[in-house]
């Protein structure tokens, strides 16, 4: 059995991940692939509980190390229960955020050294990395304006613009370091053009 491919979608707030995940799923299914759509943090009942704990605004200050370990705890569960079995069964896995979010938010945003995150990445994932990561890129303020039209802000959405500028800078850095694995798509364009660009990336894959 040929293993499935692992595709992740990343970006800062309001960049249009949910909107474009649907598009990617439909496109892949149209090519005859079986596709599992999932998300991080989350993807299993336990990991979804950890997600709720991570995102809920609270009076208590969340220690950055506690946040980092919770993200990886959720990821360990998600990988073993969902992602690895699906890939082994030949299903393509399309994941809304993955470890690049940890590099961006806990690394860039919270200030963790990338080497600390890399150690946890190896511990939890072994050698498993996405085959393709689509980074939807948008001017931070424009993305925040889009996001603010939707729901009540979660714990991350309450951060300052400078936090998201650091998050965005890490995404650019990751993409520059491994251009074969990452595709940066300008998400500030009209949706039709964003999806045209994504389609080109998928065709190349
Ligand atoms: N997090 C972390 O810290 N560390 C980790 O390791 C992981 C995650 C895995 C939850 O993520 C939080 O978890 C996240 C980082 C942290 N920070 N926050 N917040 P999330 O993915 O659930 O949350 P989010 O980033 O806010 O995503 P979202 O709510 O799903 O938004 P989105 O998917 O990017 O956007 P959207 O809902 O598709 O689109 C937003 C609006 O823009 C909507 O009205 C669309 O119709 C509109 N839109 C989309 N595209 C366009 C274009 N091209 N033009 C015009 N309007 C558009």
From TrEMBL:
Top-level EC class as recorded in UniProt: transferase
InterPro entries the record matches: P-loop_NTPase (IPR027417), Thymidylate_kin-like_dom (IPR039430), Thymidylate_kin_CS (IPR018095), Thymidylate_kinase (IPR018094)
Example GO BP: dTTP biosynthetic process
A molecular-function term among this protein's GO annotations: dTMP kinase activity
CDD domains named among the record's database cross-references: TMPK
E.C. designation(s): 2.7.4.9
Residues annotated to bind ATP: 11-18
Residues of the signal peptide: none
Keyword entries, A-Z: ATP-binding, Kinase, Nucleotide biosynthesis, Nucleotide-binding, Transferase
GO cellular component: a single term: cytosol
Recorded catalytic activity of this chain's protein: dTMP + ATP = dTDP + ADP
Domain Thymidylate kinase-like: 9-198
PANTHER family (alphabetical): THYMIDYLATE KINASE, UMP-CMP KINASE 2, MITOCHONDRIAL
Entry function: Phosphorylation of dTMP to form dTDP in both de novo and salvage pathways of dTTP synthesis.
Family recorded in the similarity comment: Belongs to the thymidylate kinase family.
Protein's recorded name: Thymidylate kinase
Underlying gene: tmk
